[in-house]
């Protein structure tokens, strides 16, 4: 084989290995023989509260004046909704012992409880200690936003807050400006905190079966990391044109250096 053919073969090989293929960029790809994917109930377990979580608790009644004192932290009469942006200052933070401190009711342990369990617990305390059923006590308990942190090859890194009850990883990534072309969609890491420790998950977002992953639906305080593809490490370019430009530049530099040294 003559030299031009060898050089052409090397050039094509470099282009083929350095370019990012379309298959690495498309989310939730279906295999032709695959069936419709159903998210299993086990992937939608309720979140259990941890230290440093912030709760918004609102107590209502038929006569709003009866519960004004229980809503003192809201700074508004009748337990009207708190401005979400001020939730850090008006909400109830879970301390290192797993407690929150409510007006009149005092300290309540909520560590490891679900939101629904906390609501039921507060409502029960109110009925047992202060009100009859006829008062129409109605308790609302919510997290002060769905907080998660994302880092790596995404448009906007950092801690994000979404004001909704449930968030899947696709929504979280979209909220962070999507994964960059140089990001590895096939091995996205999710680090999840539990009261007893942490667990790391890996999810392939190019596979439609990702919807059945235990980390497809996020939990509050999850950490998402999108690592770079090897093409970024090589620095050869994201597309064929970029790779070809890089190769031509290197060849020109090598040729120039050779000619200078020869002369």
Write the layout of secondary structure elements.
Elements: H1 3-18, E1 54-60, H2 87-90, E2 92-93, E3 99-102, E4 106-109, H3 115-129, E5 138-143, E6 146-152, E7 158-162, H4 169-175, E8 188-194, E9 197-203, E10 223-226, H5 230-234, H6 240-262
Parallel strand pairs: 6-10
Antiparallel strand pairs: 1-2, 1-5, 3-4, 6-7, 8-9, 8-10
Helix pairs in contact: 1-6
What does this structure look like?
The protein is of the alpha+beta class and 263 residues long. The chain has helices at residues 3-18, 87-90, 115-129, 169-175, 230-234, 240-262; strands at residues 54-60, 92-93, 99-102, 106-109, 138-143, 146-152, 158-162, 188-194, 197-203, 223-226. The strands form three sheets. The protein has a five-stranded mixed beta sheet with strand order 7-6-10-8-9, covered by helices on one side. Strand 8 (188-194) and strand 9 (197-203) form a beta hairpin. The longest helix is centred in the last third of the chain and has 23 residues, at 240-262.
What is the 3D form?
elongated
Instruction: Report the radius of gyration as a whole number of Å.
Output: 27 Å
Mean pLDDT over the full residue set? 81
Number of contiguous helices? 6
**Residues in helix, %:** 25-40%
Task: Order the strands across the largest sheet as they lie in space.
Answer: 7-6-10-8-9
Low-confidence regions: 75-82
């Amino acid at each position: 084989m003559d030299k031009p053919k060898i050089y052409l073969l090397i050039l094509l090989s470099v282009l083929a290995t350095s370019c990012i293929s379309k298959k690495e960029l498309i989310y939730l790809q279906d295999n032709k023989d695959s069936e419709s994917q159903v998210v299993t109930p086990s992937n939608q377990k309720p979140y259990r509260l941890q230290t440093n979580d912030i709760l918004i608790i609102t107590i209502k009644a038929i006569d709003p004046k009866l519960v004004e004192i229980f809503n003192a932290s809201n700074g508004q009469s009748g337990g009207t909704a708190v401005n979400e942006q001020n939730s850090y200052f008006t909400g109830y933070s879970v301390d290192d012992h797993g407690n929150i401190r409510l007006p009149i009711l005092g300290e309540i342990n909520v560590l490891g409880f679900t939101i629904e369990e906390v609501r039921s617990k507060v409502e029960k305390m109110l009925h047992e200690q202060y009100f009859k059923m006829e008062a129409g006590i109605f308790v609302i308990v919510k997290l002060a936003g769905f907080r998660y942190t994302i880092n790596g090859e995404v448009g906007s890194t950092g801690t994000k807050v979404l004001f909704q009850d449930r968030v899947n990883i696709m929504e979280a990534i979209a909220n962070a400006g999507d994964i960059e072309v140089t990001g590895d969609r096939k091995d996205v890491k999710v680090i999840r905190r539990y009261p007893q420790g942490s667990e790391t998950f890996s999810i392939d977002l190019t596979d439609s079966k990702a919807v059945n992953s235990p980390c497809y639906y996020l939990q509050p305080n999850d950490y998402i990391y999108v690592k770079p593809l090897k093409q970024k490490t090589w620095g050869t370019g994201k597309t064929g044109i970029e790779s070809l430009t890089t190769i031509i530049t290197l060849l020109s530099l090598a040729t120039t250096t050779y000619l200078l040294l020869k002369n």
